[in-house]
Design goal:
Strand order of the largest sheet: 6-7-8-3-9-10
Bound molecules: adenosine-5'-diphosphate, magnesium ion
Largest sheet: 6 strands, mixed
Number of domains: 1
Order of helices and strands: EEEHEEEHHHEHEHEEHHE
CATH topology: Rossmann fold
Number of strands: 11
């Protein structure tokens, strides 16, 4: 059974100052089976974050028949017990130790002190940061801080983890290493991960399934399974073939999004009803 089911969802933002409406998502349908590692891939501005926010219950969508079901129930608002959300620039609290940062969300869930500690240490161990448990964020490299942020979202042990370009601020090498760690944790603890990226390599390296967006207004243009065995290697013939297939499609969409002249952009603005 699909744990996440998005059917016919559209999103129109209303710009208060100009009184115009901008259609950002157009009739998007996508579903994720349990334990999926689903990648949402697409050019900048196509509505990836908007869709993730809609799934998270943080953003509303147009009232035109679309629906979003999570575990079979309509999403009516944020549900932190069910879904953890990792943003692009995860912020660690500078005055809390690494351990206390990972424990943070668990405190809010009312989990006992001993269990909090045990769980936080379990995830820090999985990413090799156990010995930094009592360090402060300023003592960490960017990659280490990112790993702590991953621990913080996974330690919540929600069935679903939503990640919005979580490694975008890292260099290529760190991204690959941290991606490896994320996949390794995912294989051990089994969660449903929905991971937004604009990087083809990241999509093919990490994803079980990849949904490719069109340029704005975003639609799902292509949805493919990624059969490459794990652990994966970047640059093998099969890997490159998959990247090529996606690039052929993504290129057209990226061109559409960067070539769109301001005058032309007006056309996709709809008058406010
Ligand atoms: N709160 C908002 N109000 C108005 N427009 C928005 C808002 N959030 C996003 N948009 C517009 O919706 C489009 C898609 O944004 P977003 O979902 O952030 O795309 P992506 O994550 O794929 O880069 C963009 O053109 C953006 O300007
Ligand atoms: Mg985004």
């Amino acid at each position: 059974m699909a744990i996440i089911e998005v059917t016919g969802v559209s999103k129109t933002y209303h710009d208060q100052s100009s009184g115009r409406a901008v259609r950002t998502l157009d009739n998007v349908s996508i579903s994720a089976p349990e334990n999926d590692f689903l990648i949402l891939l697409g050019p900048s501005g196509c509505g990836k974050s908007t869709l993730l926010n809609i799934i998270a219950g943080l953003t509303s969508f147009d009232d035109d028949g679309g629906r979003v079901l999570v575990q079979g129930k309509p999403v009516t608002g944020p549900n932190p017990k069910l879904m953890a959300y990792m943003f692009q620039d995860p912020v660690l609290y500078p005055w809390r130790t690494v351990l206390k940062n990972v424990e943070f969300g668990l405190e809010a869930q009312g989990i006992s002190k001993d269990e909090r500690r045990e769980r936080a240490l379990k995830y820090l161990r999985l990413v090799g940061l156990e010995e930094f448990a009592h360090a402060y964020p300023r003592q960490l490299s960017g990659g280490m801080a990112q790993r702590v942020a991953i621990c913080r979202s996974l330690a919540l042990e929600t069935d679903i983890v939503l990640m919005d370009e979580p490694f975008a601020a890292l260099d290529e090498q760190s991204r690959i290493l941290i991606g490896d760690e994320l996949v390794s944790i995912w294989r051990q603890v089994r969660r449903t991960i929905v991971f937004v990226t604009h990087s083809l390599t990241e999509a093919v390296y990490l994803g079980q399934r990849i949904a490719l967006f069109s340029a704005r207004p975003g639609r799902i243009k292509l949805e493919i399974a990624n059969p490459l065995p794990r652990p994966r290697s970047i640059g093998t013939a099969e890997f490159n073939q998959m990247v090529d297939t996606l690039w052929t499609q993504l290129k057209a969409e990226s061109l559409a999004s960067i070539k769109r002249e301001p005058a032309e952009q007006e056309k996709i603005l709809l008058p406010k009803e």
